[in-house]
Amino acid sequence: PQRRSSDRTSLARGFAANGHAAALWVRDGETAAAMKGSRRSVRDLPAVSLPPALVITSTLDAAVRDAELVVLAIPTPALRGFLADLRLRLGERTWVLCTGRGLDATSQTTPSALVRELCPQLPHGQVAALGGAALAPEVARGLSASAVLACPSIDHARRLAQVVRTATFAVEVSEDVLGVELAGALNGVVA
Known about the structure:
Blueprint: H1 5-17, E1 23-25, H2 29-38, E2 40-41, E3 45-49, E4 55-57, H3 60-64, E5 69-72, H4 76-86, E6 95-98, H5 111-118, E7 127-132, H6 136-140, E8 145-150, H7 154-164, E9 169-174, H8 177-190
Parallel strand pairs: 1-4, 5-6, 6-7, 8-9
Antiparallel strand pairs: 2-3, 7-8
Helix pairs in contact: 4-5
């Protein structure tokens, strides 16, 4: 299965709740306005409130401006087209965390490999992957859940994991980016 929009909402909520500056990009302006007003994602996680510190925007520039970390929690089939819009907005110091499952249909590569291909300004070590079971409902409600964060450098993976983990969301670390992404792709085939 592909990542759902509830995954990105849940992750953004977790970042903001942990005290990190976080922005959630929502493609549709009306949906973004409704989420700002209600502090809820009625479609994805209606029972979960969104922290006041979470910036909700339908403007991609506003969402990624000055971002140190950009989390790409979008379905893998949409990633290539999205990166065409995003790549010029990423600085060479930006970290990218991919959560998509599966392979790009055009190149048969993983999400992180596609990011490295289409965003050559990013150093190889600054593209990581987050994999594991479905994240959204458990993480958003504060129930126990876990994932694996992989980055070419184990030290960088540990630093990123500290940003992602919460009291109830355990994040293990690995240097095996390809393994984490292929496990996610195979999980989608088996499920």
